């Protein structure tokens, strides 16, 4: 098991359009989802926190391959719950190691935060990274 946590200032992210809009951090799907939300900047800050929390959690597991932020995508389930989707070598590595992920995101008062819990060697498909 490994846990990562991160906080992100909504105003700080709003002042950095190159992070929001270039595709180097967020996928087009993530940006489209956040544009549909009442406060797009707060939603983007939450996704960035989730990505950073994943980085912190996976780095303590050891042996993970290199990856970029667009290879870490935060999607949403039917009830709006955040879901981690991985692509490329990090996705392959997580599948090979049976890594299962749980993600929680929240934002209030100008700050977004996220927690990612990674469980390795699990046998269930629920929460399996895609």
Structure notes:
The chain has about 130 residues and is an alpha+beta fold. About 35% of the residues lie in helices and about 30% in strands. It has helices at about 10-15, 15-20, 30-35, 40-60, 90-95, and strands at about 1-10, 70-75, 80-85, 100-110, 110-120. Strands 1-5-4 form a 3-stranded antiparallel beta sheet. Strands 2-3 form a two-stranded antiparallel ribbon. A hairpin with a 2-residue loop joins strand 4 (about 100-110) and strand 5. The longest helix has 20 residues, at about 40-60. It is globular and about 40 Å long. The two termini are about 20 Å apart.
Key features of this structure:
5 strands; alpha+beta; 130 residues; 28% strand; three-stranded antiparallel β-sheet; globular; two-stranded antiparallel ribbon
List the helices and strands and how they pair.
Elements: E1 2-9, H1 10-14, H2 17-21, H3 28-35, H4 40-59, E2 72-76, E3 82-86, H5 88-96, E4 100-108, E5 111-119
Helix pairs in contact: 3-4
Mean pLDDT: 91
Number of strands: 5
What portion of residues belong to β-strands?
Answer: 25-35%
Show unreliable segments.
none
Q: Major sheet: size, sense and barrel closure?
A: 3 strands, antiparallel
Biggest sheet, spatial arrangement of strands: 1-5-4
């Amino acid at each position: 098991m490994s846990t990562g946590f991160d906080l992100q200032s909504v105003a700080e992210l709003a002042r950095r359009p190159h992070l929001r809009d270039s595709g180097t951090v967020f996928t087009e799907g993530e940006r489209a989802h956040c544009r549909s939300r009442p406060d797009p900047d707060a939603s983007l800050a939450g996704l960035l926190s989730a990505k950073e929390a994943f980085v912190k959690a996976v780095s303590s597991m050891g042996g993970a391959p290199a990856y970029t932020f667009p290879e870490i995508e935060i999607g949403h389930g039917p009830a709006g719950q955040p879901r981690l989707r991985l692509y490329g070598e990090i996705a392959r590595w997580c599948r090979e190691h049976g890594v299962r992920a749980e993600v929680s995101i929240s934002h209030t008062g100008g700050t977004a935060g996220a927690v990612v819990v990674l469980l390795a060697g699990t046998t269930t498909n629920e929460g399996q990274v895609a």
